[in-house]
Design brief:
- Its main location: cytoplasm.
- Belongs to the TRAFAC class OBG-HflX-like GTPase superfamily. HflX GTPase family.
- It comes from Paenibacillus swuensis.
- This protein is of the alpha/beta class and 428 residues long.
- The chain has three domains: 169 residues, 3-Layer(aba) Sandwich (Rossmann fold); 147 residues, Rossmann fold (3-Layer(aba) Sandwich); 53 residues.
- Helices cover 44% and strands 21% of the residues.
- The chain has 17 helices and 13 strands.
- The strands form three sheets. It has a six-stranded mixed sheet, with helices on both faces. Strands 2-1-3-4 form a four-stranded parallel sheet, sandwiched between helices.
- β6 and β7 form a beta hairpin.
């Protein structure tokens, strides 16, 4: 596989005009055009692109040939020539024919939002599984668009839209690419099998599993690092980390849990990417508790939360037990903090505050525990007494004749697994 590090000289050559089309379909979906375009700027900058200008167009429907219409293309051409841009990045997904037509008319590299996100992922993937998943997503995206690549194939010296599979793979025929896709799916299937076995082993041990999910740049990796001292990259960038990381975390009562960071979500996350990363994202589906990390300081907090819930629904994880964690409250005014509310249980924290981290650990511990139950165990039944200590936290013990009464705050998972040998005691 081709080296996926940035080519600095090529990256510096990427000077782009960003284009967004607002159609009736997007209006019906209540898509915030201004926010989406601002996010595209962030994505472009994350990919190392210099953004020269942004252009928007309102149309009832997209033009099947030119996407934004012939007149707007001519206007875009003048702006590109005036600024000396080398690339046009579109906020919506383009067809192969549209890429070919725009490329011929504008004489610059044409990239859409999906290709830009895939390109960023190609630069972020570090593990074998991540690299395979990204290449699979890129090839799945490119296969139906091969006829639209045109001059893009001659522009493959580097920069955005070219990291990952590499120029030789893009120049091969469809059959070769389909063979490569099948090969990658085989590799991924084997990796998924290993991941599933690992998950099952964790489940058998009865360890409580918590998944961190949230919009990209909400602070998931920061939180994992602060809670567990995990060696993970923390940057103020979109998709700073890509590969999932699991670490053990000790709770205040001495119980250990597994905490897993997942890839950040984003609106219009490419379907090919969701499909390729399903095995990774399913860490959320297997979790006993999902912590939905929210950037409290974001002006688009509400929209970002909706996107996360939509992706969780697609994964079949929306019914999982959840707690919302409003992060970065140190960047909010007191009035703004007061307005941070949502349905269900939530907590407000600053990931760099030790007292807030303690608060969060206590909250997770509370979610693990069930009712407080009393068990009456004969004093000569040490085997049953040992079970009592394994199913929760013993709060108090007292003696009654030849029996011992244990008052226990139950750990749900342990009680489900081991509690069948014990009968809760109720006074007659």
């Amino acid at each position: 596989m081709r080296n996926q590090t940035h080519d600095t000289n090529a990256t510096l050559a990427d000077r782009a005009v960003l284009v967004s089309l607002y159609t009736n379909d997007l209006k019906l979906k209540e898509v915030n055009l201004e926010y989406s375009l601002a996010e595209l700027v962030g994505l472009a900058e994350t990919a190392g692109v210099e953004v020269l200008d942004t252009i928007t167009q309102n149309k009832d429907t997209k033009d099947p040939k030119w996407f934004i219409g012939k007149g707007k293309v001519e206007e875009l051409k003048l702006r590109i020539d005036e600024l000396g841009a080398t690339t046009a990045i579109f906020d919506q997904e383009l067809s192969g024919a549209q890429v070919r037509n725009l490329e011929a008319a504008l004489d610059v590299k044409i990239i859409d939002r999906t290709q830009l996100i895939l390109d960023i992922f190609a630069g972020r993937a570090k593990t074998r599984e991540g690299i395979v998943q990204v290449e699979l997503a890129q090839l799945s995206y490119l296969l139906p668009r091969l006829s639209g690549q045109g001059k893009n194939l001659s522009r493959l010296g580097g920069g955005i839209g070219t990291r990952g599979p590499g120029e030789t793979k893009l120049e091969t025929d469809r059959r070769h690419i389909r063979d490569r896709i099948n090969e990658l799916k085989g590799h991924l299937h084997e990796m998924v099998r290993h991941r599933t076995l690992h998950r099952e082993r964790r489940k058998k041990t009865g360890i409580f599993q918590v998944a961190l999910v949230g919009y990209t740049n909400a602070g998931k990796s920061t939180l994992l690092k602060q809670l567990t001292q995990a060696d993970v990259l923390v940057e103020n960038q979109l998709f700073a980390t890509l590969d999932p990381t699991s670490r053990n975390l000790m709770l205040p009562a001495g119980k250990e849990i597994v905490l897993t960071d997942t890839v950040g979500f984003i609106q219009n996350l490419p379907h090919d990417l969701v499909a390729a990363f399903r095995a990774t994202l399913e860490e959320a589906n297997e979790a006993d508790l999902i912590l939905h990390i929210v950037d409290s300081s974001s002006d688009n907090r509400s929209d970002q939360m909706k996107v996360v819930q939509k992706v969780l629904e697609e994964l079949g994880a929306s019914g999982k037990e959840q707690m919302t964690v409003f992060n970065k409250i140190d960047l909010c005014s007191p009035e703004e903090r007061e307005m941070l509310t949502t349905e269900g249980e939530y907590i407000k924290i600053n990931a760099y505050s030790p007292s807030d981290l303690d608060k969060l650990k206590e909250a997770v511990q509370e979610r693990m525990t069930g009712d407080t139950l009393t068990f009456r165990i004969p004093s000569d039944r040490g085997d049953l007494a040992a079970h009592v200590y394994r199913i929760g936290e013993v709060l108090e013990q007292s003696f009654d004749e030849s029996d011992i009464l244990y008052n226990v705050r139950i750990n749900r998972l342990d009680y489900e697994k081991l509690g069948y040998v014990l009968e809760p005691y109720t006074e007659a």
